Amino acid sequence: MTTSPGTAAAPGSGAAGPPPAPEGSGLPVVGSILDFRRDILRAMHRGWRDHGDLVRYRLGPVVVHGVSGPELAAEVLTDSAAFGKLGADNPLRLILGEGLLTSDDHESWMRNRRMMQPIYTKQAIARMYQSMAASTAAQVEHMARGHRSGDVVDIHGEMMRVTLDIVSRCMFSTDVEQTRDGIGPEAVEVAVNYAFDRLQNPFSLPARWPTRRNRRFRRVMAGIDSMTYGIIAERRAAASAGTVRGDGAPDLLDMLLDVRDADTGEGMSDREVRDEVITTFGAGHETTAITLTWAFYLLSRHREVLRRVQAEVDEVLGDAMPTPADLAAMPYALQVFEEALRLYPSAPIVPRLARQDTVLGGHTVPAGSRLLVNLYNIHRHERHWDDPERFDPDRFSTEGRRGRHRFAHMPFGAGPHLCIGKHFALMEAHLLLAALVRRYEFRHVPAHRVVNQASITLRPRHGMEMTVHTRSRAARAG
Ligand code: HEM
């Protein structure tokens, strides 16, 4: 896929009419469904290149607008009165219920967001450093035990493993082995693929019909629910009995059970806690794992950048695991992650529903139509990025950031729904990147085909095969 100049539809130009639509994409009945199912990013990239920052598509009966410029994205994401979350037919709700990510009820979303915000501040997240560091150390150990230098490893699988472990430890104070039967990698995969398929295809058979696929999905969800409600019940019982768990340090679940509405003093119901727990698992591990995978891929293709990160990490860490203070002393490692998020935003499309007829970029957007804010296109927009396809972490140095449009880089979204887990993800990724670069060099296996697969996330379709090379002390010294 090449980068497009993407001309913006000039705001206020002429009488408001519908945005341009790709010619010929409108197959009778299905519209662009087949193109979108084949490769949604490619289809939207083509639409953007040919028609500009606002493009109208039809997916069967559903009208969808592709939004590919930061200016228009700013309007969409900051105006939640005009553009809300998808409604009750959002297939993600089949998994996440009405947690923060999928709730379309503004009042209850705001109440829960206010209650949960303090759990996710930078300071609060810093208290989870020990859990993240324990997982990271276990991952480094696991790779040392499981692989000899030169072995081929699927780095994507490894990153999924460690980020799932981190979210399990931070949420439940248990490692992933203890939650595998409920929220294991296979369960997450089945559930996410199922929901994404329904998201793209309005002609999917009703979820309640007993098809093989529906039954499989329901089985997976039953496992996830039974595990989650079981743990919630145990915690509530322990709290009423005054039992102190483990070292007494609260985990995310303790905090969710403890939050109170400032006005009413009420906490969350079991159902609400369940929805937020599953949302955290769903939103909070694959996204980080994928970006780390792309970061290691990019590093293996850009040796000069790799040498710079290695030099930074070696100088700050020597032979030790990173402490929080060390992270602050390794800004370049974080810049690598941010640049990987630019080129491969792990949640590439942010959907919204037009709640009312609106004029956007000089065009009418009718109530009931959908908007897909396309971060992949925005992050490659030539009005905002010099040589957008080039991997260059210096774009995120203090100097490099200067003067950039606030919405030109928004892998965590923007506006009131900005990712609540942003600090969690950045701390975790920074720590993992530094700890792994210190011990290993990953080299992409040239014969391995790297293909984007945009589902809800932007995964490498065939994983990421890389050889693992243990870095010797001598190499690290210089
Ligand atoms: C690199 C990692 C991550 C990326 C790229 C990412 C991306 C995003 C994006 C783009 C949104 C906005 C969705 C929208 O506006 O509709 C979002 C929302 C959200 N994210 Fe993340 N996320 C990441 C990690 C996390 C983590 C670690 C957690 C939890 C610990 C998390 C929890 C959430 C939640 C709950 C929301 C919904 C917020 C709301 O609507 O109030 N995310 N994320």
Task: Compose a concise summary of this entry.
Belongs to the cytochrome P450 family. With 478 residues, the protein is an alpha+beta fold. It contains 20 helices and twelve strands.
Q: What can you see in these coordinates?
A:
By secondary structure, the protein is α+β, with helices and mostly antiparallel strands. It has a single domain (33-477), classed as Cytochrome P450 (Cytochrome p450). Helices cover 50% and strands 11% of the residues. The protein has 20 helices and twelve strands. Helix 7 runs antiparallel to helix 12 (270-284). The model is unreliable at 1-14 (pLDDT under 50). The chain binds protoporphyrin IX containing FE (HEM). Protoporphyrin IX containing FE binds next to helix 12, helix 13 and helix 19.
In spatial order, strands of the major sheet run 1-2-8-5-3
Question: What portion of residues is helical?
Answer: 40-55%
Number of domains: 1
CATH topology: Cytochrome p450
| Total number of beta strands | 12
* Count of DSSP H/I helices: 20
Region (Disordered): 1-26
Protein name: Cytochrome P450
Keywords: Heme, Iron, Metal-binding, Monooxygenase, Oxidoreductase
Pfam families: p450 (PF00067)
Based on the model shown, name its key terms:
single chain, about 475 residues, Cytochrome p450, 5-stranded mixed beta sheet, 12 strands, disordered N terminus, binds protoporphyrin IX containing FE
List the helices and strands and how they pair.
Elements: H1 33-51, E1 54-59, E2 62-67, H2 70-78, E3 83-84, H3 93-96, H4 106-116, H5 122-126, H6 129-146, E4 152-154, H7 155-172, H8 176-183, H9 185-200, H10 212-241, H11 252-258, H12 270-284, H13 286-301, H14 303-317, H15 324-328, H16 331-343, E5 349-354, E6 358-360, E7 363-365, E8 370-374, H17 375-378, H18 398-401, H19 422-439, E9 440-444, E10 452-454, E11 458-460, E12 465-470, H20 473-477
Parallel strand pairs: 2-8
Antiparallel strand pairs: 1-2, 3-5, 4-12, 5-8, 6-7, 9-12, 10-11
Helix pairs in contact: 6-7, 6-19, 7-12, 7-13, 8-9, 8-10, 9-10, 10-12, 13-16, 13-19, 14-19
